[in-house]
Structure formats: structure tokens, C-alpha cells
Specification:
The protein has one domain: Jelly Rolls (Sandwich), CATH 2.60.120. It contains 3 helices and 26 strands. A 7-stranded antiparallel sheet has the order 1-22-19-24-17-14-13, with no helix packed on it. Strands 2-3-4-11-6-9-12 form a 7-stranded antiparallel sheet. Strands 5-10-7-8 form a 4-stranded antiparallel sheet. Bound molecules: manganese (II) ion (MN).
Length: 310
Amino acid sequence: MEKIKEDNNILDKSNESRNKDRSVDLITNSVETGEGDGFIVHRCFPSHSIRHLDPFLLLDEMGPLELLPQETKGFPDHPHRGFVTVTYLLEGKFEHRDSQGNSGKLGPGDVQWMTAGSGLVHSEMPEKEFAKTGGRLHGFQLWINLRKTDKWIKPNYQDVPSRKIPIARTADGKVSVKVIAGNSLDAKAVINTLTPILYLHFTLQPGGEVVQHVPKNYNAFAYVINGKGMFGKDKTIVEEKKMIVFKNDGEYVSIREPENGRSSLDVLLIAGMPLNEPIVQYGPFVMNTQEEIDKTIEDYRDGRLGKIEF
Ligand code: MN
């Protein structure tokens, strides 16, 4: 008797994740947009169907594009206040400079988690040596809103090289995950976030399957970088360059590679606890009220967000 009871418990546990798998709410295309000085990005949101996904404000796929030798397209000096920008590079090299004298370089797999807080001016450009020869550039930029109480903190960076980002694998070896923020498959991210955020890059070999825990109150979405996958309770098939928004109807998100795929499946799964605070945005400034935006525009015009002097 006791044995059967135990088996039932195990069965219940495996059913639990299946029963609480989220379903797909919306599938959208990323839209090609020129940003900065003509740098091509594929914007996942904001879009006509998604204004924001609290606490997330924007996701851009940067490129992929081929930079010609001496071509220095990028994002010259511009300000930010009130939120976090996360740059995750897959290919190529970038460098940044800011009005507080900080600078740094990003290569393939590196992450820059920049909390703009009270504000700064920075530039994000192809790295000088890389720009001389040119080459392929590909990456992502995510904007995450800050709580009212965090919007005025001193700007800070978490620059994390690829080798320091934890990678975990499923027992069958068919799925690996780079844990940029949060937890996955018993690996914990090294990046600290001010509010709970999950930022995972999954790679699934043909036939691979993973079920990721995502607290029910988190808003969650995925972006298919390449390949084709099956997502959520209904095993909805979604192809590359598309974004999937999940319903808040479960505590898990399942991702499967349908086995007939010719290549591996690469997916970003991003989720976070909503802030539920008013959002007033003016381009690179995200505050809670129009008065704060007016003040921020004034601060920027008067040079109080600083300028890059090196
Ligand atoms: Mn920027």
C-alpha cells in the first residue's frame, strides 16, 4: 500500500507542472526599425499590440547585421533616467562610455546590466578595433522599469563577461540554459536585480524539452532567436523572429524542440514581477508622473545628466 502511495505522489508531482503550464496569450512579429544613427534593430515591443509588459518596457534584437569595414553605426551619446538597460551580445563587439567616466567593452556572450537610476548620458558603439575590420553584430537590449523608490538611485553597472554567466543542462544533455537573471535548473544568476527578474537563454537540441518555473504573478514572454519551438500547455508552434506572451494562468512555462527541426532552437525566456505603478515615458526617460518627465527634460537640457568628456 505504502509503495503505491509513494508512486502516486511522484505521479502527482510530474502532473503538477503539466497542469500548471501556462498557455500562449499572444504571438507577435518583431518589427525592423532604424535606431541611433541608422543601426537596424528588430523591435519586439513596444508595438501596436503591446505597449509594455510590466516591468518590461522594450525588447530590441540588435541586428543581426554585417558591419562594413570602417562603418561605425551604433548609438551615439544619449541620456537615460528611471530604468535599467540590459545589453546581451551574441556576436561582434561593442564599447560604451558614460558621463560619469565609466567605459567598458562587450564581446560575444557578455552582459551589461546598467541601472540608469537618476540618470546619465552614454554612448554604445561598435568597439574601435572591431569597427576597423567590420563583421557581424547581433545582440539584445531589454529595458526594465524601476520602482518609484529606485528611480533616483546612483547609476551603476554590472558588467558580466560570458565566462561568469552560469550555464546549466538537463540530465539528458539536450537543453542548456544561460542564467542571466534568476534561477534555472539549479543554477543561480550572478547578476543582482532590484525586483525579481528571470532572464534565461535556452538552447534546445532536437527533441529537447524543458519546464521552467515562473511564479504565477510574473509577466512572462519568450523570443525565438532561431529554430522552431512548441510553447506552453497547448504546445503552440512558434518560429524564429517571433515573440510569445504567456497568460498568467500557471506557474511553469514549457519549451520543446519538435524533433523534426534541422537545427537547434534558441529562445530567450524573460519574466518579472510587475511593479503596478503609473508609467509616463518620454523616449529614454521613464518616470511615474508628467511633472517628473518635464523636470527630467529640463535637467537634460541644462546638462544635469552630464556629458561624455573623454
Ligand atoms: Mn542607451
